[in-house]
Amino acid sequence: MLGDGGDTLNALAVGEHPWAGILRDAKNPMITVGQGALARPDGGRVLGAARSIAERCGLIRDDWNGFNVLHQAAARVGGLDLGFVPGPGGRDIQGILAGCKSGDIEILYLLGADEIDTDDLGAAFVIYQGHHGDRGARRADVILPGAAYTEKDGTYVNTEGRVQLARHAVFPPGEAREDWKILRALSGSLGRPLPFDTPRELRRQMWEAHPILADADAAPRAPWDSFGEAGPVASTPFEYPIEDFYRTDPISRASHTMAQCSELFVARRHQASLWTGTHG
């Protein structure tokens, strides 16, 4: 345990911490940057400091990649591979929510978006496409029931960038449909039909547009470039961003078993932190 704030990170980044030498002399040194650290107001500087450590201590070599980012949201790595980031004039999540509240955005389409704050979306008309009827569905004006990952064929990208192909284990219940079928039907109703009618056609076009998704089961080597921001990281301690490990997604929140785990390990731990010596 070297420290819990930015001071240690700053010292490592400029080579003034004793552990900088240990990293530099290690056979295969590694650093893993958690998403919670990058979500801080100075997250760009955290990333920049981590890059400096990697370059100074030899974490990036032809035969070794010791720089890792650990994401906490499913599909985030795949989304980044596809370029799912705000374009010129676009909005990030907070900008979208603010636009709904102010009335600038009249329609909000939530595609499996259950981890955002939907308490105040103003008068926006909300369409929710997903499964388990979780947080995103509570505010929805229209719900389009989608299939869970066990109920559809899919292409997934794990946190290390490895593309994985999956087959459905069961069929979606009731009126639920695979997501691509919902989007295809909706595009036809709008008079702008998407150019595919089968999973094979969809996958072929996806591979043509994004060749990185065609190389299944391989962990690609990303090009090393300049990223992050320059400047010192705040001394504020880093905080663990997950409040309840057992209920972090719609499926686990709908599970009785996960609810019991949460009650057993999370609620009781929180209660124990409030105890004093008088509790025995």
Describe the structure.
This protein is an alpha/beta fold and 280 residues long. The chain folds into three domains: 6-73 and 222-243, no CATH class; 76-214, Rossmann fold (3-Layer(aba) Sandwich); 244-280, no CATH class. It is 35% helix and 12% strand. The chain has eleven helices and nine strands. The strands form four sheets. It has a three-stranded parallel beta sheet with strand order 5-6-7, with no helix packed on it. It has a two-stranded parallel ribbon with strand order 1-4. A two-stranded antiparallel ribbon has the order 2-3. A hairpin with a 5-residue loop joins strand 8 (154-157) and strand 9. Helix 1 runs parallel beside helix 4 (43-56). The chain is globular, with a radius of gyration of 22 Å. 15% of the residues are buried.
Helicity, in percent? 25-40%
CATH architecture of the largest domain: 3-Layer(aba) Sandwich
Number of domains: 3
User: What overall geometry do the principal axes of the alpha carbons give?
Assistant: globular
Order of helices and strands: HHEHHEEEHHEEHEEEHHHH
Regions with pLDDT < 50 over 5+ consecutive residues? Answer: 275-280
Please give the order of strands in the largest beta sheet. Answer: 5-6-7
> Helix segment count?
11
Mean pLDDT: 90
How far apart the termini lie comes to 30 Å
Structural class of the secondary structure composition? alpha/beta
CATH topology of the largest domain: Rossmann fold
Please provide the count of β strands: 9
The CATH first-level class of the largest domain comes to Alpha Beta
Strand fraction band? 5-15%
